[in-house]
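User: quick one, sequence for these tokens?
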């Protein structure tokens, strides 16, 4: 924390923490590292806003997330709670993600580490809605790594819907219309064409009833109805909807790619769709 004003030194220190954790894992006394490390990270990040602290937190979760020790899990939970709260406070709108892409990238990589090694740390009434809302706020960020981390986080979270039905599906369903609007905006030109495979992964997972509670097609109908006919004709809307109804991954991807071609034919069309859809999104 004393090096907080020197970003390069902070990055090197956090990289050293990574190797220390990986090298000492399982060694006698390794658990003694956790408390001072977790306390330092949760104090240093709000003070300096360096993404490296989130990276170090990810490595800490990787190293200790599988421990059954109650004290270890309490220490990790406190760290994750505070880092999620502090990081999402500075990532409120897409411009924030553009200004701080490293923070966004490492926040959602930390989320992925939680889902992989210790899902309970993230699947709380405090952390999960906060992270999903933040993900939607930054989903259309143009920075490649930040965007891909957000999309991967959403897709991995959706994969766990069936095994955590009391918290994951209700959280997504509370943002269902907004997420549907963002997916269509992404295809319509909100994200580069190269990101559409990741968007397709998220869309396909979201369509599963275990995640959307059977409401996904209703939200899609509302989204397509809101799009001006001059941007997407009725026949094109129906063709897209019919492809999505199949819930087949390859068919959905082709439909997204075709929709992207239609919507990117000129700047006026590209601008008209987010102008309508993003009014009701995060």
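Assistant:
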């Amino acid at each position: 924390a004393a090096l907080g004003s020197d970003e390069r030194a902070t990055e090197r220190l956090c990289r050293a923490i990574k190797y220390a954790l990986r090298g000492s894992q399982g060694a006698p006394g390794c658990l003694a590292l956790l408390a001072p490390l977790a306390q330092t990270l949760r104090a240093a990040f709000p003070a300096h806003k360096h993404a490296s602290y989130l990276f170090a937190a990810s490595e800490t979760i990787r190293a200790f997330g599988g421990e059954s020790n109650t004290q270890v899990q309490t220490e990790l939970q406190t760290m994750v709670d505070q880092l999620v709260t502090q990081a999402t406070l500075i990532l409120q709108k897409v411009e924030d993600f553009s200004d701080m892409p490293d923070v966004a990238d490492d926040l959602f990589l930390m989320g992925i580490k939680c889902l992989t090694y210790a899902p309970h740390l993230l699947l709380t009434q405090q952390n999960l809605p906060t992270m999903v809302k933040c993900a939607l706020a930054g989903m259309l960020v143009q920075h490649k790594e930040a965007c891909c981390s957000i999309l991967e986080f959403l897709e991995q979270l959706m994969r766990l819907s069936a095994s955590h039905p009391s918290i994951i599906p209700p959280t997504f369903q509370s943002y269902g219309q907004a997420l549907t609007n963002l997916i269509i905006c992404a295809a319509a030109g909100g994200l580069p064409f190269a990101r559409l495979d990741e968007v397709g992964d998220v869309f396909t997972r979201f369509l599963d009833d275990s995640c959307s509670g059977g409401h996904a097609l209703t939200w899609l109908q509302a989204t397509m109805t809101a799009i001006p006919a001059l941007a997407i004709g009725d026949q094109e809307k129906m063709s897209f909807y019919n492809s999505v109804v199949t819930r087949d991954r390859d068919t959905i991807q082709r439909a997204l790619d075709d929709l992207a071609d239609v919507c990117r034919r000129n700047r006026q069309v590209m601008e008209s769709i987010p102008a309508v859809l993003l009014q009701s999104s995060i």
